[in-house]
Amino acid sequence: MVRQTDTETQILEAAKKIFVQKGFAGARMQEIANEAKINKSMLHYYFRSKELLFEKIMTSYIEMTAPNFINAISGEGTIIEKIERLVSTHINTLLKNPHIPMFILHELSQGRKNMIVMMKQRLAVNNTLPVFMNQIIKEQEEGVLKQVLPHHLMLTVMSLIVFPFIAKPIFQNMLEIPDAFYNQIMEERKEIVMNFLKDALLK
Amino acid sequence: MVRQTDTETQILEAAKKIFVQKGFAGARMQEIANEAKINKSMLHYYFRSKELLFEKIMTSYIEMTAPNFINAISGEGTIIEKIERLVSTHINTLLKNPHIPMFILHELSQGRKNMIVMMKQRLAVNNTLPVFMNQIIKEQEEGVLKQVLPHHLMLTVMSLIVFPFIAKPIFQNMLEIPDAFYNQIMEERKEIVMNFLKDALLK
DNA sequence: CATTTATTCAACCAAATGGTTGAACTTAAT
DNA sequence: ATTAAGTTCAACCATTTGGTTGAATAAATG
Fold first, then answer.
1. N or C: which end of chain B has fewer CB within 10 A?
2. Domain region containing B182
3. Distance between CA atoms of residues A28 and B97, nearest Å
4. From A26, A164, A195, residue closest to B155, measured CB to CB
């Protein structure tokens, strides 16, 4: 009984797809079962309930994303170098999983407190965030960076990285951009965002 | 027979609240009825179906937001002045209706094509968007603005305005910001975003 | 006043949905 | 081979959900 069944991973893959596509409320257990090509009762056999299956998925996404942050903004380097890492690795991750931000943010805005708590814990490793914030303040005092409240800086950086993926359906239609081209724009964006940030942050 | 019933507006208010809070899939007709303090069959009497009621709400939000754009980016003024109007009026609107962006973007990412089409139509008045894009190019050629593809510029501006409202649940928890203070940050943001944008866009 | 029209509701209904059960079948260990 | 544990499924079940009906009441109109 070692093989950690194929079925289990099939279910998880199917559940990811459906949950991410439709959200918790919109997802149907039957649809997940169909997608996984198994019987509906299998879902309950492996994961007891919709809620628990959902949490497994959500958790796996949080655990997939959190290291990106931590690795990017902790360790060696100036703030700008760290932001550079963050922009580049995060956009890369999102290019592979463009629907995750909407999924996570939508569910969090439904008030899933336990998920928010989990995210906080994952990012709390090594005091990563406060250390980063302090480095911002230090570099501002040294005159490297312009004086902006650190949380505004964080908001700005994350906005530029994440929002284009969330707003893809509108932008793509408004600006009449073909599907393939949108990915290319996101690719370009790594550099554009960095140029923008350097102009706006560096003194 | 004139008074365009009180009940009707009560229902619409309730529906707004519940749909915005839970999304289409998560909203329950019974809950809307409770919120409106009327019987469930009233909902169907006035709006036939969940789908139609939902579309009414969605439409009203689109019609509430679109003029913001059009007024801001059309008419007199340089690109920077227009962006200034856009940032200021849009953040003001969102301060009053912080949940609308998540609502609209989530539903659009569920593939509600008719809604996307409607948005496009609303913004198509007077060729607003193409005219604005051309003005960007013109000012770039004149050497006022830095050379960035117009759609990147648009993406950037909208990201900075909208994302902080969408990501509020995470940020507020991550950065441990009390509720009242978050609104203040959004208020500050009008100026901060403009400073960012001027630094990054102007030559 | 009488008749039409609009408004409100309790009681229903059919379909969908999350979840359960129990039997059958595989696989692995004793 | 026998037992135990893991895996699969068809058939069910209770509840929820969007939606309907028909009767009762209120309002307006001729």
1. N
2. 51-201
3. 30
4. A164
pTM of the model: 0.93
Neighbouring residues of B22: CB distance < 8 A, sequence distance ≥ 6: A25, A110, B28, B31
Instruction: Work out the angle at residue B59's Cα, subtended by the Cα atoms of residues B81 and B66, and round it to the nearest 5 degrees.
Output: 10
Distance between CA atoms of B27 and B20, rounded to whole angstroms? 9
Q: Are A145 and A152 in contact (CB under 8 A)?
A: no
Q: Give the pLDDT of residue B5.
A: 65
Beta bridge mates, A145: A202
Over residues B6-33, the pLDDT tens digits come to 788 889 999 999 999 999 999 999 999 9
Distance from residue A1's CA to nucleotide D6's C1', rounded to whole Å: 7
- The residue type found at A13 is E
Chain C bases under 7 Å from protein CB? 5-11, 16-22, 28
The answer to whether residues B44 and B56 belong to one domain is no
CATH number at residue B44: 1.10.10.60
Pull the structure tokens for residue A98: 């463009």
Query: For B162 and C25, how far is CA from C1' in angstroms?
Result: 56
Query: How far are the Cα atoms of A48, B6, B83 from residue B46, in angstroms, in the given order?
Result: 40, 12, 41
* Residues pairing with B145 in the sheet: B202
